[in-house]
Design goal:
Oligomer: heterodimer
Mean pLDDT of chain A: 88
Structural class of chain B: alpha/beta
Helix content of chain B: 10-25%
Radius of gyration of chain B: 22 Å
Strand content of chain B: 25-35%
Number of helices of chain B: 11
Number of domains of chain B: 1
Mean pLDDT of chain B: 80
Distance between the termini of chain A: 39 Å
Number of domains of chain A: 2
Low-confidence stretches of chain A: none
Number of strands of chain A: 20
């Protein structure tokens, strides 16, 4: 591990000596355990240690945030903006919202961020985190327009690692749609992000993860959250195009009637690896969770879904559903799933399903008899397979935009 | 349903017989292994094989990943061999067998004499660790079928044993399998010659009798080209307070066009209502579909044992081979079951089917853990998995942990699982028609398990249905 990482802790700004000492301690803990591998149940299907050491040499910490280019903004619909450069909060613009209803600040100190440590990447994050943002929507405020986080990565990031941590809070009876939009260049780098989400009574948070172009980034993101009475969290994972991407979500449904949705439509091509790991803890009665994961796998790509539903003994009337579907288009591609249930309450409705296989030959045949050539027929079916995910997005402008970006990806399939 | 009212059915088969035992020196050592080998009159190669396993065992560590946790086993405090004394001179017929032993079987409801006539089952009964009597030998001999204790096979058919023993479960597999390889005492050996259909269900009844004796069975079944065999395994054990370890190994080999059907009804002592005592059932069962068009089918009804921990698996090597797994696991009181299967697809056009039904009551924990692995070369393979769990009360748990790997685009894997409680409407309907709560539950649970029960051979089906009802008696308030 020491050979792989070449990190000078002194160059990372700390607010006081104690923080500097904490960083050192965490970094030592990380070096001791190393990057997670298949021995770790949460990494059962992928050896991050192998993936990183195969692709990286002499990883250093990024400390450059200079940025003077212009970001190409999305013009398809009106939105508020947050701009991050290499993980660091740069600027925000909430022009469509009432003043003072949405607050954002830059998190610089580690003190304000106490993430739970689930694996060694947590130690690494604690040791090297440069902070991030703290976003808060005041209570009883429904945002007029979505917020897009332009997550911009500069071009000079080869062999760099970026560690950041963010916090999002949606106040009582408020609503927010948050779109995370990654823009990165050709350089090969690692990100390690920890995010904390807090959804108050009756609040709604919609989170959409989108990757714009193909990238050489190796992304890890850990989201942990808690939900209060009657709150709702929806997460759409549409981040195809990264070399490696793992999103790990831990959601605690702490109070009654809260609900949580994870939907993902991924289209993976050559040399791409995508992994979604979820753990939904039903800790109170009458909660609902719904997960639908769809993967299209081409070339030698690899898709992984590890989902776990935990139902505590008091969480009666739980309704939990998990579905993962994969279309494998090539013999070199691989799909692994581990849909897990751990249930301690009896009056529940919990089910999961998982399928993987190739495109339905009969459907292809049907389309071809109607004069559609093979390639087009395949693309049509793939489009239909992935588009199902968008049915759950009521905002038409956003849906059209997402459908368009998926369509571009599908057109690239050869 | 009130969980406070859960009460358990007293273990019906809890009694012990007093038979003097010859015991190996206490503890696990090279000496013990040499003792076992000597008393079995084993050739040198067998002893070497055991010692090789023992050498490997010293390096291995006990696995920790499983859900049911158990107190540390002191392997030096166990006896690894004990045999009923009357076995010194092998009995030629049932008359020569210790009458007390016969009495034990009669209490269990498996009178050897009657069974001979009535059900046409050849019984190779294992009392503690040595086979006692083998029936219907004559008829099997005529067809060239070998069905004998494995210790006899080691002496009489060394070529077959050498070729296949440890070929499915290697010596260095995992801790308990390796332990078994080192110290196994006896078990069954079956060889079906080419193009032969075994005319009857082969069956072994196991009993654990001597206190503080781990039982290490070794079963090896080989179905040669174009043959068919159905094998039954049934278990009951006397009531005891100390935990007893049972680490058996079962190896199946199916060659071209052969089929093996392996059925188990397991009703060992589950411990009392408070979770004291009971058997640790840590069994390794694995079958290899080595030939083209071969088939292995596992059916199990698991109602006993304090901890059941086993994964009967199929390695589908031959093209067009088929693996099946049908399971019912019922846990009540403090029982824990962590069971499932592995289907490893290596050949082309291989198919597998998994049907698992878990029922959990009292404070029990029931886990399905399974692996479906489709290799890159297993073109056009298919798997279908269904695992359903029923929960009774909110003090028990039901878990599903499937691992699914698909490395082949032309293969299809389907998995579905549900967890629920007994439908109130169904209960109400049954009650209306005059069935009391318990009868209704029994009816519904039997319906829930039907898909698996109907896979059992006739001899077992009735017993198993009864067992399903008995295991849950009193679990509904």
């Amino acid at each position: 591990m020491e050979q792989l990482f070449n990190i000078d802790l002194k160059r990372i700004p700390s607010s006081d000596e104690k923080e500097a000492a904490d960083r050192k301690k965490n970094f030592e803990l990380f070096l001791k355990g190393g990057l997670p591998n298949k021995k770790d149940e949460n990494w059962k299907f992928s050896d991050l240690n192998l993936i990183i050491s195969k692709n990286f040499k002499n990883v250093t910490n990024n400390d450059e945030y200079k940025f003077d280019e212009k970001i190409k903004l999305i013009n398809d619909f009106e939105h508020n903006k947050i701009i991050l450069v290499n993980g660091l909060f740069k600027s925000s613009d909430f022009q469509f919202e009432e003043r003072g209803k949405i607050k954002i600040e830059s998190l610089r100190s580690l003190k304000s961020f106490d993430n739970e440590l689930k694996n060694n990447l947590g130690y690494l994050n604690k040791a090297l985190s440069i902070g991030g943002f703290n976003l808060e929507v005041q209570k009883d405020y429904k945002c007029n327009k979505p917020i897009i986080i332009y997550n911009y990565f500069t071009a000079n990031l080869n062999n760099k690692i970026i560690n950041n941590s963010n916090k999002i809070k949606v106040g009582q009876n408020s609503e927010l749609t948050l779109i995370e939009y990654n823009i990165c260049g050709k350089s090969k780098f690692i990100t390690n992000t920890y995010e904390k989400i807090d959804i108050d009574k009756g609040a709604v948070l919609k989170n959409i993860n989108l990757q714009k172009t193909k990238s050489n980034g190796y992304f890890y993101k850990n989201i942990s959250g808690k939900q209060d009475y009657n709150s709702s969290y929806q997460n759409f994972i549409l981040s195809s195009g990264l070399k490696f991407n793992k999103i790990e979500i831990d959601m605690n449904l702490e109070k009654e009637k809260s609900s949580c949705y994870f939907l993902s439509g991924l289209n993976l091509s050559k040399d791409e690896h995508q992994e979604i790991k979820t753990q939904i803890n039903h800790l109170a009665p009458n909660c609902k969770s719904y997960q639908k994961i769809k993967n299209v796998l081409e070339s030698d790509s690899k898709g992984v879904y590890q989902g776990k539903i935990f139902v505590k003994d008091i969480a009666q009337k739980t309704d939990a559903y998990q579905l993962s579907k994969a279309l494998i288009l090539n013999d070199q591609a691989e799909f692994n799933a581990k849909p897990e249930l751990e249930i301690y309450a009896d009056d529940v409705k919990c089910s999961h399903g998982s399928t993987s296989g190739s495109i339905d030959e009969e459907a292809i045949h049907y389309l071809m008899t109607r004069g559609i050539e093979l390639k087009t027929a395949k693309k049509l079916l793939i489009k239909g397979f992935l588009n199902e995910i968008f049915d759950n997005i009521p905002e038409e402008e956003i849906r059209t935009f997402l459908e368009k970006s998926i369509a571009i990806q599908i057109d690239e399939i050869r | 349903m009130k969980s406070e009212q859960l009460k358990s059915q007293e273990y019906k088969y809890g009694f012990t017989t007093d038979i003097e035992n010859i015991k190996a020196p206490k503890g696990l050592s090279e000496e013990t292994i040499r003792f076992i080998s000597k008393i079995k009159k084993e050739p040198k190669w067998m002893l070497d094989w055991r010692l090789k396993a023992y050498k490997r065992l010293k390096v291995l560590k006990e696995p920790k990943w499983q859900k049911p946790k158990y107190p540390k086993i002191n392997y030096q405090d166990l006896y690894y061999y004990s045999a009923p004394k009357s076995m010194k001179d092998k009995p030629k017929s049932l008359d020569d067998v210790d009458p007390k032993l016969i009495e034990t079987y009669n209490k269990l409801g498996i009178p050897l004499n009657e069974q001979k006539k009535l059900s046409g089952v050849a019984v190779d009964a294992v009392f503690d660790s040595v086979s006692v009597a083998t029936t219907f030998k004559g008829e099997l001999d005529k067809k060239g079928i070998i069905f004998c204790p494995i210790s006899e096979a080691i002496q009489k058919h060394p070529d077959l044993v050498k070729k296949y023993l440890g070929s499915v479960i290697p010596i260095s597999d995992h801790y308990f399998a390796t332990l078994n390889s080192a110290v196994f005492t006896d078990g069954s050996f079956v060889y079906i010659p080419p193009n032969t259909r075994c005319p009857m269900e082969l069956s072994t009844y196991f009993r654990i009798n001597a206190s503080e004796t781990g039982q290490f069975e070794r079963t090896l079944i080989i179905a040669d080209k174009g043959s068919y065999v159905s094998y039954l395994e049934g278990c009951t054990a006397p009531m005891r307070d100390e935990n007893q370890l049972h680490a058996a190994n079962v190896e199946l080999v199916a060659l071209d066009d052969a089929e093996i059907k392996y059925s188990t009804v397991q009703n060992w002592y589950p411990g009392d209502k408070n979770g004291v005592g009971g058997i640790y059932n840590f069994v390794t069962k694995r079958g290899a579909c080595r030939g083209r068009n071969s088939k292995i089918s596992w059916t199990q009804v698991e109602t006993g044992s304090a901890i059941t921990w086993k994964y009967p698996s199929c390695i589908l090597q031959g093209d067009n081979s088929v693996g099946e797994f049908y399971s019912i696991a019922i846990t009540n009181n403090h029982q824990k079951a962590d069971t499932g299967t592995k289907m490893i697809h290596l050949g082309k056009n291989t198919k597998s089917k998994i049907i698992s039904k878990g029922i959990s009551a009292g404070q029990a924990d029931n886990t399905y853990r399974g692996l479906v692995d489709i290799g890159a070369k297993a073109k056009n393979s298919r798997n279908y998995t269904q695992c359903d769990s029923l929960l009774m009360g909110n003090k028990c748990g039901a878990h599903t942990v499937p691992y699914i790997r698909n490395k082949n685009g032309s293969s299809t894997v389907e998995h579905e699982a549900t967890t629920s409680k007994i439908n109130e409407d169904q209960l109400f309907y049954c009650n209306q028609r005059g069935l009391n709560q318990e009868e209704a539950i029994s009816l519904i649970v039997n319906g829930f398990c039907k898909e698996v029960l109907q896979q059992l051979p006739m001899e077992f089906a009735v017993e198993a249905q009864k067992l399903v009802s008995i295991s849950l008696e009193g679990s509904v308030g």
